[in-house]
Design brief:
Two copies of one chain form a homodimer.
Chain A lengths: L2 E3 L2 E10 L3 E4 H23 L5 H5 L5 H7 L4 E4 L6 H16 L8 E5 L11 H9 L4 E2 L2 E2 L3 E6 L4 H14 L5 E9 L9 H4 L4 E11 L11 E5 L7 E2 L12 H5 L6 E2 L1 H24 L8 E4 L4 H13 L5 E3 L12 H7 L10 E8 L3 E8 L5 E5 L2
Parallel strand pairs in A: 2-18, 5-8, 5-9, 14-15, 14-16
Antiparallel strand pairs in A: 2-10, 3-4, 6-7, 9-10, 11-17, 12-13, 16-17
């Protein structure tokens, strides 16, 4: 094989944006209650009797329950007509300002999301080019902008970070805009508390920049990914994809095109897996001991379950800090990990070793380990 | 920068699968006619008069028209209940057989598609892990499988090929399964001839394998990508994404969650762009003259427009062969380019230089140039 110089990658900046509309647990519980009353009245008309006790339970929650079993206090929802692209644009504009990066310096966009602004076309990466004013022409010819929309359920952002590293390390890009954004509120079935109590909307943008190899924050062995399609049913949208297209008003009314979850299976399968064998395999590949991690950020699907995962790690020697969004933004899927980083700028000190852990639907997991070797610009607009 | 050995990439095999159900132009025209009659009757009830002449025209086509202006004779549609994953699985199984690659040898899946089998979750890459029996455990630990679902409208497959190259060249993968598959029939609005006359279903799988650098088929400069979100409206799905979620039966009945196209704008914007400045910029980056290309495959959205693009290239010195699916499979989006390769095995001879051209919604374009340096296994099950 030929020998060539290969660059490393740093994160030059991270920014996060959350919409202004706050939904407390109380408001979510009230919205579910309203849906229950409507559904009950509908069933009385249709079948002569209302919801059974079991059926009614799917609509029932409380602030106390959500705080205790999920650890969330509130989340943000986008306004009508605002999609994932709007969340991403706000975060990306802020990132370019804070890092003093001109649109003309961006040579690629990786857009991690499970809630594309539009089905099929146009891709969000293209919309972002226009929103940011990334130039169309350079030197009299169409200007190159590398691009892809990337999706891997709750592991989307770390998977896209891995692809950003591959593009930079292979010399194919030098200044990538990595977006992690999701308008999860668009996927909520208000007849099912399981996801209604957890999902939220946020956008993030991270600037991934080439650096000399000796300043690399990462290494190829410091990324780890995993798939288990045998448990795909645990987090699933029954109708609306190419396998079962949405064709009937009945499916629409029953929200079969919305996301559904088997909460118990998540708890019983994914939590012990991430708490044990997954981190063991990933650290073995990286050659890092668990006690070398100064800080970690886990996909924030459920803070109580994350505490249980971190508890397992602590028993095995983990002594680092755990960054999170503190249950104030809900499960923002592709935004959750960079949001946790952006909200905790003081923790991101040079020299610290971090672990980033995406896991969820698929099932899938995507982990990354790195060392902060440069100061980074962190900006959050979440008020 | 440190010097390290970097591998190159070859395509070890390509396979394609199309479903058995053939839809001729005549059958498509009849299906549109049925939709017209139904819509006419509905409007008579709702507003007292049927379709106007202009409205009726959107349902009207003929075998002769489609052959003349699109160049397609037929396409394949999946059966009900079959989604993109089913097309991909058939192609991937065939690929593993023909290349003698065991599931345990696959270290990653890049799944290019605009029609995910399920919205939001599970990702198709995870479903494919299970379908192919890629092992879950290795050496007593969870086995690593790198993964991402990748989407960039009609440029998805070449964008994913670029990511495959980045992963292999950066030493992060050695044996990647690159899927290009779309069940486009799930996106058709039968009240609009513009896409109804062109879309089709197919799945493909390509094995991307690390080779010594001197045997590399590609180089970083041989990939080129472009975005223009300012023309995003040309190919667009009005409702159903996170920006405008599908909420009403009216939108469902009016198929506002289906793909729509401004055919004239595609012709006027995209065709001259790909025919001129885009290929010029891409070849300038690669340092390749146009007359060095022995064979090309263009995204098969419209064979007549592709002829016009190739006509422009010929005027500038292109003398190579044009591979296509010959209008027999429709516009299969992420499958179209590898399908054209798989259907023309005799053209894929060692030593030949090729160009692959994805372009479409976004707008987006993603091109790749390479040299065939090894024999490759080509398999197609399209009967």
């Amino acid at each position: 094989m030929a020998s060539v110089s290969v660059p490393g990658m740093r994160l030059a900046g991270i920014s996060a944006h959350a919409p202004a509309q706050v939904w407390s647990n109380v408001k979510v519980a009230a919205r579910l209650r309203l849906a229950r009353i409507q559904r009950d009245a509908q069933l009385r008309r249709e079948r002569g009797h209302g919801l059974t006790g079991d059926e009614a339970r799917e609509f029932t929650t409380s602030d106390r329950w959500v705080r205790r079993f999920i650890g969330f206090t509130e989340r943000r929802f986008s306004e009508n007509g605002e999609g994932t692209i709007d969340l991403a644009t706000a975060a990306a504009r802020r990132l370019l300002e804070s890092t003093d990066c001109a649109p003309a310096d961006v040579d690629g966009i990786l857009f991690a999301s499970v809630t594309p602004s539009y089905l099929y076309s146009p891709p969000d990466a293209a919309l972002l080019q226009e929103r940011l004013g990334i130039p169309l022409v350079q030197g009299g010819l169409p200007r190159e902008t590398r691009a892809a929309d990337v999706s891997l359920a709750c592991s989307s952002w770390v998977a896209a970070l891995m692809l950003a590293y591959a593009l930079i390390r292979s010399g194919m890009a030098r200044n990538l805009l990595l977006v992690g954004a999701d308008r999860m509120s668009a996927t909520i079935n208000w007849r099912d508390r399981s996801f209604a109590t957890v999902l939220g909307d946020a956008g993030t943008a991270t600037l991934c920049t080439a650096v000399p190899a000796e300043e690399d924050w990462f290494a190829p062995a410091q990324f780890w990914s995993w798939l288990d399609g045998g448990s795909a049913d645990i987090i699933r949208t029954p109708v609306g994809g190419s396998r079962h297209p949405l064709r009937t008003c009945e499916d629409l009314e029953n929200a079969r095109h919305c996301l559904a979850m088997d909460g118990r299976a998540v708890r019983e399968v994914l939590v012990p897996f991430v708490g044990g064998p997954a981190i063991q395999a990933a650290l073995a590949k990286a050659g890092w001991p668990l006690d070398s991690l100064d800080l970690v950020a886990l996909h924030e699907a459920n803070l109580v379950l994350n505490e249980s995962i971190v508890g397992s790690w602590r028993k095995r020697g983990f002594r680092g800090e755990v960054l999170s969004a503190g249950g104030r933004f809900g499960n923002t899927t592709s935004a959750s990990i960079p949001l946790a980083l952006a909200l905790n700028p003081a923790a991101l000190a040079t020299g610290r070793r971090f672990g980033l852990f995406g896991f969820g639907g698929g099932l899938s997991a995507s982990f990354a380990f790195g060392t902060i070797r440069h100061p980074l610009e962190v900006a959050a607009s979440v008020d």
